[in-house]
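Sample intake — NADP-dependent oxidoreductase
Collected from: Streptomyces thinghirensis
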Amino acid sequence: MKKVSFAEFGGPDVLQLIDAEEPHAGPGQVRVAVRAAGVNPVDWRVREGQILKAHPLQLPAGVGLDASGVVDEVGEGVEGVEVGDHVFGEGSSTYAEFAVLGAWARMPEGLTFEEAAGYPSVVETALRVIREVGVRPGQTLLVSGASGGVGSAVLQIARDRGIKVIGTAGAANQDYLRSLGAHATTYGEGWVERVRGLGHVDAALDLAGSGVIRELVELTGDPSRVVSIADLGAPESGVRFSGVAGSVPDALAEAVDLISRGRLHIPVEKSYPLAEAAAAHIDSQAGHTRGRRVMVV
């Protein structure tokens, strides 16, 4: 089978499309014929060797955590899923023609494979950081870097829970944020005052790692009310860095519920074939994404 792999840590150029042995489903797992794989910032952070404590691996290694596809092997002890089912979930080395998933759910009706691949890690992360930052219904959450996959999910989940959201993003994504129910403003000089003009901030999330931790603490008045998923230096300011996943099965169940109720939709901005994995990482690292980027198989 074809698989994206890297034999050394480094830039996008270390990614190679290789011929590899097919993986097989072990106990408690399913194997899917991959139709699409989510492109997440964690993918290139792992490729660079940034976060090995949370994602230990031996080289050469595959790339990717999220996938959607058709079940073609069911491991020992697995119930409730059959060969031929369309599922989305989380596993390892998902930039490939076949991948093993350790957590999965049936795809909601009406969702394409490309759309479905963009949800697993994104929704888990969004649910986790909303929980960790401690924001409650009726309060206001500031989201820095709100137009990407996690931001898109945070805005919609917060809206569903009765939380007001202020989102920052580039000028081109202001209408997009508003379409998701956020009060939107741009980055750049004077952004803190623009946020203050939109109301009091109870808690804040740093999703882009754009060097705004100090300002987020200033706006909330308390570093314990700020969580970052993108700035590894955040703990130096007393801010929690969240990088370890919670329950993916629970997140998938909530994603299915939200999608089925029409309360969550994350658009796919761009799709890439496996041979263009390096381009997908370059674009992901550049930021300014509206929704998700995915690999298609």
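Post-analysis note: The chain has a mean pLDDT of 94.
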